[in-house]
Amino acid sequence: MRGAPVAQKALRSVDPASAKKSKDREHRLKRRHKIMRTLVPSKNFQDESIFPNFGIHHGYPLEDQPGVLIDESDLKMLGEKLVRGITYIVDQCFIEKDHKVEVFFLRDEAAVPILAQLQKHGTKYECGPGITVLRAVAHDMPTAALFAIEIWGRLHMYAAVRPLSDDRK
Predict the structure, then answer these.
(1) Which of 4, 9, 16, 24 is most buried, judged by most C-beta within 10 A?
(2) Whose CA is closest to 154, among 132, 128, 169?
(3) Burial class (CB in 10 A: 0-12, 13-18, 19+), 43
(4) Which ranges of the chain have pLDDT less than 50?
(5) Residue 166, phi-psi category: left (phi > 0), alpha (psi -120 to 50), beta (remainder)
(6) Which residues of 21-31 are buried (b: 16+ CB within 10 A; e: fewer)?
(7) 110 to each of 32, 115, 133, 154, how far by Cα in Å?
(8) How far is CA 148 from the centre of its chain?
């Protein structure tokens, strides 16, 4: 199962029984309580509030599937960091301040045209276990690019890099 080792490590990090010392046990318990306070009961879910490609896992009781609140801005920062990192690694240059990185999230059906173009014109990069990036650079503007980022086969992000002078409002 993709991502299982990370999930197991995350669960272990909040398991007081996994601690070797009492101080570590206290930290794990505090972290566990902090996370538990942020969970949302499944009965409070609204379909439109569930992140694309996430949701109810069939085969598990609904009451055992609480939601986790994640700030969209945190996911956008992660997407931007990946875009900037791939650009630096591949092109050996930074995305300068005169360019904008926009990260957005789409349901699978809405992403079909973007993925078709990226698969036709882009290059695929594997970034460690669980992260795949499709990237296409514009031929007429090498500082502009389109990205599709997949993490653990589940979290899908899309991003565009474009010059600020290209702002269209």
Answers:
(1) 16
(2) 132
(3) exposed
(4) 1-3, 169
(5) alpha
(6) eeeeeeebeee
(7) 37, 10, 18, 16
(8) 11
Token pair for 65: 């599937």
Task: Give residue-wise pLDDT tens across range 105-152.
Answer: 998 899 999 999 999 999 999 987 889 999 999 988 888 999 999 998
Structural tokens at position 150 = 């997949």
Phi-psi region of 95 (alpha: psi -120 to 50; beta: other; left: phi over 0): beta
pTM of the model: 0.76
Measure the CA–CA gap between 75 and 157, rounded to whole angstroms.
Answer: 9
Domain definitions of the chain by residue range: 4-68, 72-166
What per-residue confidence (pLDDT) applies to 2? Answer: 47
CA of residue 127 relative to chain centroid, distance: 13
